[in-house]
C-alpha cells in the first residue's frame, strides 16, 4: 500500500470549522491545485481558496455526518461558477450528494494534479460506510481514530469499530494521523483515568496541555504514538483490562469485551 512519495511534495494544513472541526487541505509545492477533506463548512473553505489563490480540484469524504459534508453543495456550485472540474469522492455505502466516485476497501483515488494516490480503507463503526484515505505516511481517518481516543459508535457495532481500529494500528508506525476534531486533551484526560502510570501518556498529556493553552492544534498524531498512549488501541494490554475490570467490578473475558466496556465508560465520562 506504499507509493513512496516524498513528504516534501505535499503540504497538509487545517481549516478550523465550527467548534472543534478540522477541514484538511492538501496542496503540492509544484501546483496551484487544492484537495479538501470533509468540508463541513463551505464558507471557511472558500475564504481559504481565495486567500491562497488555489484551484479546488477534489473533495474527499470519510462519512455522511453533516459536519463533514455540509459544505459540498456550495463548493460544488462555487466550482461550477469558476468552471473548475471538481471530483467528489465518497463512501460507497453512504448516500452523499454530488458524488462523482463512490469508494470501498481496495479502491484507489488518483489525484494527478497534486501527484498523490490514496488507497481506500473500510472503517465501519462510527457509521456503517465510514472510509479512510491512506497514502504512504498520510492517513485521513475521519471520526474513527482520534488522538488518545476513538469515535462514538453510532451505526456500527463495537466489534466493527474494534476491527477498524486494529486495521489502522497495523499501518506503518510512521503514518501521520489526520483526524477531524480537536478532541485530544479531553481524550487524554480520560486515557489517564484508565492508564495513570503510562509514562508516554503523561508526557504527551503535558505537551498537549501546553499546546491547547496557546490555542494550537495537536494534530497530526502518528500510529506509533497512538499505539503507545491510546487505550482503545491497547485493549489487549493487561493494565487496560485490569482498569476496566476495576471500574465495572467484573471480569473481562476477551479483548473485545474490554474494548466494548471501555467505549461505554468513555461515553459516560
Automatic annotation (TrEMBL):
It comes from the Bacteria. InterPro entries: Clx_II_MBL (IPR035680), Glyoxalase_II_hydrolase (IPR050110), HAGH_C (IPR032282), Hydroxyacylglutathione_Hdrlase (IPR017782), Metallo-B-lactamas (IPR001279), RibonucZ/Hydroxyglut_hydro (IPR036866). This is Hydroxyacylglutathione hydrolase. Belongs to the metallo-beta-lactamase superfamily. Glyoxalase II family. Zn(2+) 1 binds at residues 63, 65, 126, 143. PANTHER family: HYDROXYACYLGLUTATHIONE HYDROLASE (PTHR43705), HYDROXYACYLGLUTATHIONE HYDROLASE GLOB (PTHR43705:SF1). Residues 20-181 form the Metallo-beta-lactamase domain. It is an enzyme of class 3 (hydrolase). The keyword Hydrolase applies. HAMAP family: Glyoxalase_2. Keywords: Hydrolase, Metal-binding, Zinc. Its cofactor is Zn(2+). Its EC number is 3.1.2.6. Binds 2 Zn(2+) ions per subunit. One of its GO terms (molecular function) is hydroxyacylglutathione hydrolase activity. Zn(2+) 2 binds at residues 67-68, 143, 181.
